Amino acid sequence: MTATERGRDPSSPASRIVSRLVGLLTRRSALILFLLALAVRLVHLARSPHRDELFHVMAALSLLADGDLSVDGGSPYNRAWPFTYLVAGLFRLFGESLVVARLPGVVAGAGLVAILFLWVRKNAGDKAAWASALLLCFDPSHVFLSQLGRFYAPHALFFFVGAIAVYQAVEPPWNIRRLWMGGILSVVSFGLAYSLHVGTFLGLAALLSWLALACGPPLVRRLPKARRWLLVPLAALAAAAAFLGLEAAFGLDFSRTYMFADDWASKRSGNPFFYHQRLAHDYPTLWSLFPIAVLIALKKAPRVTLFSTVVFLAGVGLASFGGMKHQRYILYLMPFFFTVSGIAVVTVLPWLRRSLGDLLRRWSFLSARPRVTAAATNLVLIGTLLLAIGTNRAPINTARMLSARESDVGTYGWQPDWNAAKPLLAPLADSSEVVLGSWPLAPRYFLGRLDVSLHAPELTDWQGRRLPEFSRPGWFLPQPVISERESLARIMACEPSGLLIVENGHWRASWAVSDDLADYIVENLDRVEVPGRWGLWVYRWQREPEDVENPCA
After folding, report:
1. Number of neighbouring beta carbons within 10 Å of residue 110
2. Last residue in a domain, options 372, 390, 408
3. In terms of domains, do 367 and 505 share one?
4. How far is CA 150 from CA 160, 417, 438, in A?
5. What is the span of the domain harbouring residue 326?
6. 86-100, 197-211, 265-279, 311-325: segment of lowest average pLDDT
7. How many other CB atoms are there within 10 angstroms of residue 183's CB atom?
8. What is the Cβ-side half-sphere exposure of residue 278, based on CA atoms within 13 angstroms?
9. Do 533 and 404 touch, CB atoms closer than 8 A?
10. Looking at residue 401, what is its pLDDT?
11. How many domains does the chain have?
């Protein structure tokens, strides 16, 4: 055996060590990945809340206290009500806290990583399963949204389970028992997914696109050629009937819901390239090479690659032309993206290693040193992978989230640190006649009161109609809402003292506290200096009672 052949010997000590390590990990790999994902998602779990979490927290507290889902006496918060019921049940068992409210998301996020691993391993092998699951495990959006007391991670889990149930049910050769079992599991999973998020309909449409590609040709071949033309009108009629039936069954005006956009999302609603831009920002390497990855993965595992590619691209394409756009709205599609990427990576890496080794062996001083050649090959390959990881924003964001202090607001976007601010703001609120806030829920939850809301979107109803100043929309909170400087001036004229708290993302935002209102606040109120990392703008006014012009109505 030549030195070169010994260098390629798969039974070399290094290869045997790697093989034994892989074998050890794959024995209990799903459990290992679940625990790893769980550990990642438990980091900083007690941090200050994302504003939307408080909907479920306060509705769950109302459910336990009064038996309804109202938030501080406003209209019931019925969105994703099964999730709120789950949070209420956990509060009853373990007591009320943000950590307890976040447990369903943590478990669902970790469970999705394990289930993705098992499914990819069954259809594409161990190495592809590890690559796909690790990409999902450390995806920053998935980590962050799994840590919220919100329904996005459970929704992603239920949709994925339903989708792979359909995939396995129609796997050839067709089996009636498998079709029934897969159909029942998918109906239950998709029903739970829809109860959490209406965007499930977009995912179902993407799944139907794959079903047409996977099952359509075999059905067409079974029909006589003279009757095949009937499939097109019959398929169109079936799709229309299903669409109208679902709208009637769920009472959903789908076209209006699909195009609706809140004020904060209005700038994104007309941008069909939003998700392309987000993927290019977070995963420039994987996204720019995705077409090549699809071709590589198709050679390794054609059926699972076609399934994942169609569901992901069709789902993202449909979401791109809708009204509401945010990275969290395609969270449930990301496992399919990572499936294709993981299969492609583990398929191309051995080829890269062989090609690199052949190249290095052409150098005279390495040709007779197989161990040095193997070490150099591995070193260059590892360096290339580290460079690829380091040039993608996603792993950097995940590292920042895991290493940052709990109070580091910038790490988690612009969510204010109400936990840190409460000791200072609570006495100020107690000593003020009126408390105003740009986000209604946080002052109610942390300070126990909110008298007037500055959250302008509440003055626009679901039909897009503008409501008068000081209206009480009652969508979720009963307090009056203002958005103009004249309205704030009226309050200041009739109240001797007041505290005004604006969250950083609402300050000088056209859809929240506008520049005009912010200028008035700066000119006429006293600023309370707070640490910038809290993410809050705090102002107050204080006058003698005799200086008040008129009592407030």
Report:
1. 24
2. 390
3. no
4. 18, 18, 21
5. 3-224+236-390
6. 265-279
7. 14
8. 19
9. no
10. 83
11. 2
DSSP state of 263: G
* Residue where the block lists tokens 């109610």: 444
| Domain co-membership, 324 together with 432 | no
39 and 155 fall within a common domain: yes
**Alpha-carbon torsion (27, 30, 33, 35), positive or negative:** negative
* Measured torsion, CA atoms of residues 428, 429, 432, 435, in degrees rounded to the nearest 10: 130
DSSP code of 447?
I
Query: Which single residue is written with the structure tokens 């609706």?
Result: 260
- Find all residues with CB under 8 Å of 526, minimum gap 6, and list them: 539, 540, 541, 542
| Separation between Cα atoms, residue 248 and residue 232, nearest integer Å | 24
Classify residue 451: in a domain, yes or no: yes
**Cβ atoms < 10 Å from Cβ of 261:** 15
Closest CA to 525 of 428, 455, 415, 446: 428
* Cis peptide bond prior to 335, omega within 30° of 0: no
Structural domain includes residue 411:
no
Please report whether residue 187 resides in a domain.
Answer: yes
Q: Is residue 399 part of a domain?
A: no
| Tokens standing for residue 507 | 């300050």
Q: Which residues contact 216 (CB under 8 A, 6 or more apart)?
A: 231
CA angle 525, 526, 527 (to 5 degrees): 115
Query: For residues 468 and 1, which has the higher predicted lDDT (pLDDT)?
Result: 468
Q: Please, which pLDDT band fits residue 400 given cuts at 50, 70 and 90?
A: confident
Same domain as 339, residue 281: yes
Distance (Å, whole) CA 197 – CA 219: 33
Task: Tell me: do 17 and 147 sit in the same domain.
Answer: yes
CA 361 from centre of chain: 46
pLDDT over 90, % of the chain: 46
SS (H, E, C) 460-512: ECCCCCECCCCECCCCCCCCCECCCHHHHHHHHHHCCEEEEEEEHHHECCCCC
Residues present in the chain in total: 553
In this prediction, residue 434 carries a pLDDT of 93
Q: Are residues 320 and 452 in the same domain?
A: no
Give the separation between CA 483 and CA 41, rounded to whole angstroms. 38
Measured CA to CA, the distance from residue 55 to residue 479 in angstroms comes to 16
The answer on 439 and 310 residing in a single domain is no
3-state helix, strand, coil in the chain (%, to 5): 70, 5, 25
CB atoms within 10 A of CB 544: 8
State the chain's mean pLDDT as an integer: 83
Do 376 and 427 lie in a common domain? no
pLDDT for the residue 7: 41
CA distance 80 to 194: 9
CB-CB contact of 136 with 116 (8 Å):
yes
Q: What is the pLDDT of residues 469-494, one digit of tens each?
A: 888 776 666 788 888 899 999 899 88
Inter-residue contact 79 to 87 (CB < 8 Å): no
State the burial class of residue 466 (Cβ atoms within 10 Å of its Cβ: 0-12, 13-18, 19+): exposed
Q: Read off the pLDDT band of 367 (50, 70, 90).
A: low
| Residue-wise pLDDT tens digits, 453-462 | 887 777 776 6
- Looking at 167-278, which runs of residues are DSSP E strands? none
